[in-house]
């Protein structure tokens, strides 16, 4: 699969590395242009390419991995999604300096804002409920760490569940974006919730 990633911070780089290692072709873009991405992708894998945002959006699947305040600029109306999958990995922080500051959305919710900014995309919420240092840290023997996902399109959810499993996590579809997406947001019951699922042992008989 050709996977696009918008963002070159910790989330974007980690996922680029994970999916390149899983055998996918990965395109990475940021707001400063492909030249600024070259140094980042050269440290990951040969299958990771610096690209423009327009090139990334033409991938089969796109991971949105930018700071929350940059989302409206990145998801500009000029981008056309044509039913492709957009994975919202963001958390609604207004500031990452010193104390983390949560943005006041005045009763609105992050993934629903993302869905409105990309109205012709199938938006799935994922990779946001745990810090990445925790998400990909070692697990107890014969256990996998649970990763919640939310979305309205069943085919898109199945695709993301498969991709979550490819990076060693156990996907759990929590529900539709308007309900489960809100529950996965900062302050919601799934935010920061770390659970484990037992790994099924294959019978040798």
Explain this structure to me?
By secondary structure, the protein is of the alpha/beta class. The chain has a single domain, classed as NAD(P)-binding Rossmann-like Domain (Rossmann fold). 28% of the residues lie in helices and 23% in strands. The chain contains eight helices and eleven strands. The strands form two sheets. Strands 1, 2, 3, 4, 5, 8, 9, 10 and 11 form a nine-stranded mixed β-sheet that branches. The longest helix is centred in the C-terminal third of the chain and has 13 residues. The protein is globular and about 45 Å long.
Main sheet specs:
9 strands, mixed
The amount of beta strand, in percent, is 15-25%
The radius of gyration computed from the alpha-carbon positions, rounded to a whole number of angstroms, is 17 Å
The name of the CATH topology is Rossmann fold
Percent helix among the residues?
A: 25-40%
Uncertain runs: none
Mean pLDDT, all residues: 92
What is the helix/strand order?
A: EHEHEHEHEEEHEHEHEHE
Main CATH class: Alpha Beta
What is the CATH homology-level superfamily?
Answer: NAD(P)-binding Rossmann-like Domain
Provide the number of structural domains. 1
Number of helices: 8
Distance between the termini: 34 Å
Q: How many individual β-strands? A: 11
Could you say which overall geometry the principal axes of the C-alpha atoms support?
globular
CATH architecture: 3-Layer(aba) Sandwich
> By helix and strand content, what is the structural category?
alpha/beta
């Amino acid at each position: 699969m050709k996977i696009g990633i918008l963002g070159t911070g910790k989330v974007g780089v980690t996922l680029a590395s994970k999916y390149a290692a899983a055998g996918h072709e990965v395109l990475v873009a940021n707001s400063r242009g492909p030249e600024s991405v070259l140094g980042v992708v050269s440290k990951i894998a040969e299958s990771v390419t610096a690209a423009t945002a327009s090139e990334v959006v033409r991938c089969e699947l796109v991971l949105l991995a930018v700071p929350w305040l940059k989302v409206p600029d990145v998801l500009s109306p000029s981008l056309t999604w044509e039913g492709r999958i957009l994975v919202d990995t963001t958390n609604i922080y207004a500031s990452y300096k010193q104390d983390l500051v949560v943005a006041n959305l005045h009763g609105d919710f992050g993934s629903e804002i993302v869905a409105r900014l990309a109205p012709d995309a199938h938006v799935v919420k994922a990779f946001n409920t745990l810090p990445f240092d925790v998400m990909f840290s070692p697990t107890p023997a014969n256990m996998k760490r649970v990763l919640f996902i939310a979305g309205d399109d069943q085919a898109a959810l199945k695709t993301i569940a498969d991709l979550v499993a490819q990076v060693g996590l156990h996907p759990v579809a929590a529900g539709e974006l308007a309900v489960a997406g809100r529950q996965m947001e900062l302050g919601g019951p799934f935010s920061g919730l770390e659970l484990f699922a037992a790994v099924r042992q294959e019978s040798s008989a």
